Structures are given as C-alpha cells and as structure tokens.
C-alpha cells in the first residue's frame, strides 16, 4: 500500500491550479442516465471516485470513454441493467446518486444501500421519502433499495426535513423526467446543486428558483433529455485545502482556476485568523499573517462554513496563537483526525461535536493514518509544519478526491513523496 512521506518546515510559494469539483462531477455523471444523446464532460477531476461511478455506469451497460485526463464522453443509450451492486456502492456512498435517474428513466431499479461510513451514520431516508412522495414503491430487500414506479414518477410537493446535498440532487434528477411539476422545498443551495440544475435547464427542463431553497421543476413526462457538453465547476473544497496549505506554512501562494464566490466562508475565516487575501476573477492569493489568531467555526450548509474543510481548518488552528473552537453540526463522527493529529503532538479536546484546539504547541513528525478523505488532507497540512518526517498511511482515502496532490504540493515547494510500504 502506498503512503506519503512529508518533511516538515518548507515555506511554500507560487501558484496551483484547482481541479474540477468531484462533488459536482458525480451528480452530473449520474445525470447522463437522463440523456438520450452521449454527453461530454470536461474539467472532470482525475480521482478514484469518478472512476468508481464510471465503473458503476459501465456495469449497467453504458459506455464511458476517456478523451483525455480530464474529459470523458458517456453514452447511456446502451444501459441494459438497473442494478447498482454492493461491490461498487460500498466503495463510494455517492453511488446512491444513480437511484433517482434510474427510477425516473426505467420505472424500476435496485441500488445497494451504502451503509454507514467513517464520518457518521449517513442515512438516505430523506431520498427515499421524497421518491415515495413522487409515487415510487420502495422496499429494502437483502441490503438493496428496490424501487418501482410502474406508471412513472409523478411531480410532487417535497419538503426536506433536513438539507441534504445528494438527496436534493437525486430528487431534482427524478423530477426532471417525472410527469407533472415538482415543488422542492428546503433544497440544498450548494454550487454543485446549482450546476446540476443549470445543466438540466440547458437541456430544456424548466426550473424556477435555481440557487434558492425552493425550486420548481417541470418534468419532461418520461421523455429523455438532450444534455449538452458540460464543464465541471472548480472544486471549492480543494481550493480551501490549498489556501489552508498556504496559511499553515504562513506563505504567499495563489490558487488559480477557482471560483472565489464559492469560498466566501473559507476566505472570511482566513481573514479572521489574520491572513489577507487578494481576490481576482478566478484566482485568490493568500498572504502571510503577522500573527495567526484562533477562531470559532460552526460547520453548516452552503453558503455557511463547509464541513468538508473542517478538518483542514483544525490543522490550521494548531498553529494559531490561542484556543480555537470548532462545532461540527453536520456529521456526528467527523473528528476521526483528532486522534491522529494528537500523535503529532496536537492538543485537541473533544466534547461531543465540539472540539477545542489549543494552538501553538510544537508538532513533531509521526506515522499517522488517514481515516477519511478530508481527514487525510488535514494530516498532510499538519505534516507540512511538523518538525521532522511524517508518514501518512491509508492514502487511498486521499486518492478518492484529490487530483495529484503530491505533484501540486511539490510544485509549491513542499517536500512530499509517494512511496510504497
Ligand atoms: C454531500 C457531500 C459531502 C459533504 C456533505 C455535506 C457529495 C458527493 N458529498 O454528502 O462531501 O460533506 O454533502 O455538505 O456531494 N441526512 C439524513 N437523511 C438523509 C440524508 C442526509 O439524515 O436521507 C443527514 C446526514 O446524515 C447529515 C446531513 O443530513 O447529517 C447532511 O448530509 P447530506 O447533505 O445528505 O450529505 P451527502 O449528500 O451524503
């Protein structure tokens, strides 16, 4: 198994280009199930989660042709199975994104239940309730969601009890092909949800309220769509991660090919911590702070502070001058990185979903284990400033969502190598 070896202490400089958003590419790839015509996607990140979803579509009978490292064409006209099997779904929870489109298109499907994951229980009850509201009959059998809608899905009024990103995406895709109009209330407003709506709107689906918490989707009466070529939006989580790399090493770096508007909460928090930034149309430069101040963070839905950059900011708080408080509101178990950071000398005290991070303690290089995707990047960030050598193990988590992190950090001047055990 591969691991990363990082020598702490290097100052970073220069610029790094942000890849396309994994969390946008995934629903867009699932949305190709709604298309009559082949769809080309550009700016797709070259990461394992994308390969996993492509494999799932190929298992269903679709073709996914890679045009180059970051573009692919998907043709779903040849799909001849509607069963998303456990061996793939267990690798990636977002496979559940095929549920809405498969059911809307074929009137039946079986999608393996994703099960729990490292950061929490993560149920899909809200996806299922909404589909039932649209006329689906759903049973759980042998670990699978078995869904049928013999007369097609019907437009409905859906009120989400909680804001769910993939739940919203699933229902928007289902509503796009349904018979009648759907009103979806308390829908997620994340940029990835907005891009999905825009892609469907470009294919002729009438959608009102894009980017708000209430959208109205006029279904295409079971008729397949003609999705146009898509360019995936930049990854706001990767952008936040590299800004944290600049911040934790107190260096000046620039991230390019990003959408600053999507990372306002991240930029605001960096400013509260004493960093200044220069924002251009598609780039952000972060400058060193005179003093790195502690901060308070509450994770919440977009446009609030994203849970997906919580771990990276926790690493950053380790170099702040004082105690920071992080309140994780979205996932009940998203502090798995705390124990690993402690192996490097971090002083972090947990009380339920609240972490107090005592900054300013010396960090020392150590062997640490990645526990989930974003936790992996937090360990790398801490290793960048720890004294001596760190080795980050189980980096398959990292491969799921960060394109070429070793190459990108090396180009910024970090001392990082990928090695085999
Ligand atoms: C998506 C993102 C993930 C991010 C998360 C929150 C993708 C592929 N993944 O995950 O990176 O961390 O949003 O921003 O886009 N919930 C329920 N019932 C449901 C669905 C969700 O109780 O049916 C709860 C979850 O347990 C969690 C909260 O709602 O506490 C938000 O989860 P959700 O937005 O659904 O996360 P994902 O879409 O899985």
Attribute tags:
alpha/beta; single chain; four-stranded mixed β-sheet; binds uridine-diphosphate-N-acetylglucosamine; 421 residues; 25% strand; 14 helices
Task: Draw up the topology in text.
Blueprint lengths: L1 E6 L5 E5 L4 H10 L7 E4 L5 H13 L2 E6 L2 E5 L7 E2 L1 H4 L9 H8 L1 E5 L12 H9 L3 E5 L2 E5 L8 E3 L5 H13 L3 E5 L5 H12 L3 E3 L5 E5 L11 E2 L4 H13 L3 E5 L7 H9 L3 E4 L3 E5 L8 E3 L11 H8 L5 E5 L9 H6 L4 E5 L2 E5 L8 E3 L3 H13 L3 E5 L2 H4 L5 H7 L3 E6 L1
Parallel strand pairs: 2-15, 3-14, 6-7, 10-11, 18-19, 22-23
Antiparallel strand pairs: 1-23, 1-24, 3-5, 4-5, 7-9, 8-9, 11-13, 12-13, 15-17, 16-17, 19-21, 20-21
Bound molecules: uridine-diphosphate-N-acetylglucosamine.
Description:
The structure is a single chain. This protein is elongated. A 4-stranded mixed sheet has the order 22-23-1-24. A 4-stranded mixed sheet has the order 2-15-17-16. It has helices spanning 22-31, 48-60, 86-89, 99-106, 125-133, 165-177, 191-202, 236-248, 264-272, 310-317, 337-342, 373-385, 396-399, 405-411; strands at 2-7, 13-17, 39-42, 63-68, 71-75, 83-84, 108-112, 137-141, 144-148, 157-159, 181-185, 206-208, 214-218, 230-231, 252-256, 276-279, 283-287, 296-298, 323-327, 347-351, 354-358, 367-369, 389-393, 415-420. Helices cover 31% and strands 25% of the residues. The model has no long low-confidence stretch (mean pLDDT 96). The chain is of the alpha/beta class and 421 residues long. A hairpin with a 2-residue loop joins β4 and β5. It has 14 helices and 24 strands.
């Amino acid at each position: 198994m591969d691991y990363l070896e990082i020598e702490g202490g290097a100052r970073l400089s220069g610029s790094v280009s942000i890849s396309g958003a994994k969390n946008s590419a995934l629903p867009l790839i699932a949305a190709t199930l709604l298309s009559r015509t082949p769809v080309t996607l550009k700016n797709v990140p070259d990461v394992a989660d994308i390969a996993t979803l492509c494999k799932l579509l190929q298992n269903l009978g679709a073709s996914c042709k890679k045009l180059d490292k970051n573009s692919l064409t998907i043709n779903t006209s040849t799909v001849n199975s509607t069963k998303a099997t456990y061996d793939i779904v267990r690798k990636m929870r977002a496979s559940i994104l095929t549920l809405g489109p498969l059911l809307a298109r074929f009137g039946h499907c079986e999608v393996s239940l994703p099960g729990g994951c490292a950061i929490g229980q993560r149920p899909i009850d809200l996806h299922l309730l909404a589909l039932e509201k649209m006329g689906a009959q759903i049973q759980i059998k042998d670990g699978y969601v078995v869904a049928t809608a013999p007369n097609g899905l019907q437009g409905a009024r859906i009120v989400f009890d909680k804001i769910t990103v993939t739940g919203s995406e699933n229902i928007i895709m289902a509503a796009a092909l349904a018979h009648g109009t759907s009103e979806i209330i308390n829908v997620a407003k994340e940029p990835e949800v907005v891009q999905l709506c825009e892609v469907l709107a470009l294919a002729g689906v009438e959608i009102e309220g894009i980017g708000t918490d209430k959208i109205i989707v006029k279904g295409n009466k079971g008729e397949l769509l003609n999705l146009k070529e898509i360019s995936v939006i930049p990854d706001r989580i990767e952008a936040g991660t590299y800004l944290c790399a600049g911040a934790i090493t107190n260096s000046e770096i620039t991230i390019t090919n990003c959408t600053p508007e999507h990372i306002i909460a991240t930029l605001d928090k960096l400013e509260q911590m004493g960093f200044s930034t220069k924002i251009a149309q598609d780039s952000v430069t972060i400058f060193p702070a005179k003093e790195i101040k502690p901060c308070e963070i509450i994770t919440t839905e977009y446009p609030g502070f994203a849970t997906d950059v919580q771990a990276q900011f926790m690493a950053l708080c380790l170099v702040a001058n004082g105690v920071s408080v992080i309140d994780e509101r979205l996932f009940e178990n998203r502090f798995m990185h705390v124990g690993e950071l402690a192996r490097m000398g971090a002083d972090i005290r947990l009380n339920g979903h609240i972490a107090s991070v005592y900054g300013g303690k010396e960090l020392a290089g150590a062997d640490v284990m990645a526990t989930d995707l974003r936790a992996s990047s937090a360990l790398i960030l801490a290793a960048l400033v720890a004294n001596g050598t760190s080795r980050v193990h189980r980096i398959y988590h990292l491969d799921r969502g960060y394109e070429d992190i070793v190459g990108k950090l090396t180009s910024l001047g970090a001392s990082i190598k990928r090695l085999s055990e």
